[in-house]
Amino acid sequence: MSPTGFPNLQPAFTMHVLINPPLTVGDVSTGGPLNVVTFAGGSMKSEPGFSPAVDAAIIFGSDLIRADPSEKHVRLDVRSLMKDKYGAVINFTYTGYIEVTPAVTKVFGGSPDAATTEFGNSFCHFTFETGNKDLKPLGDSQYVGAGRFIVEKGKPVVVEYKISKVVKLPM
Questions:
Q1: Which one-letter DSSP state was computed for residue 100?
Q2: Which residues, other chains included, contact 1 with Cβ-Cβ below 8 Å and sequence gap of 6+?
Q3: For residue range 92-116, what is the model confidence (pLDDT) as tens digits?
């Protein structure tokens, strides 16, 4: 017997975010340290067959990163813009968390032995907004994603997200 009422996930996008080293704001009045990571570029492309199709470049973005008191997780709060290949501007935001593992700590610290991480330690909820009539359906759905860090010597760190649309489970 299949479960009823549970949603399913439809693969939608692969996003690559090139990040700059973090800027430390320090301990702020709301409690705890605040770090800001700005984006150096990136892209988002639809998975084959997904509609509406998107092929866009990230043109602006920043992530306000706050560590939990336990320091076992950091919380993400992203505001960003991208422009598709036809000139449509898409506002996107996401919130989520990263489990702070030894591998993630090496990436955050810029360690020379930092390496690409696996999926499974970071999950986010994405929201998209645009005035473009062909892409407006992006704003009518819920999206979730899993992330990882891609580390290559001599290149900016890339955050890769596999983003899925939340859909009704087939009956």
A1: -
A2: none
A3: 999 999 999 999 999 998 899 999 9
φ, ψ of residue 107 to 5 degrees: the values are -65, -50
Nearest Cα neighbor of 33 from 1, 65, 81, 80 is 65
pLDDT value of residue 167: 94
pLDDT of residue 6: 85
3-state secondary structure 108-170: HCCCCCCCCCCCCCEEEEEEEECCCCCCHHHHHCCEEEEEEEECCCCCCEEEEEEEEEEEECC
What DSSP line would sit under 7-21, residue for residue? Answer: EEEEEEEEEEEEEPP
- At 44, give phi and psi (nearest 5°): -140, 130
CA distance linking residue 38 with residue 69, whole number of Å: 23
Q: Which two tokens stand for residue 21?
A: 């080293």
Quick one: pLDDT at residue 136? Answer: 96
pLDDT score at 2: 56
The SS3 of residue 1 is coil
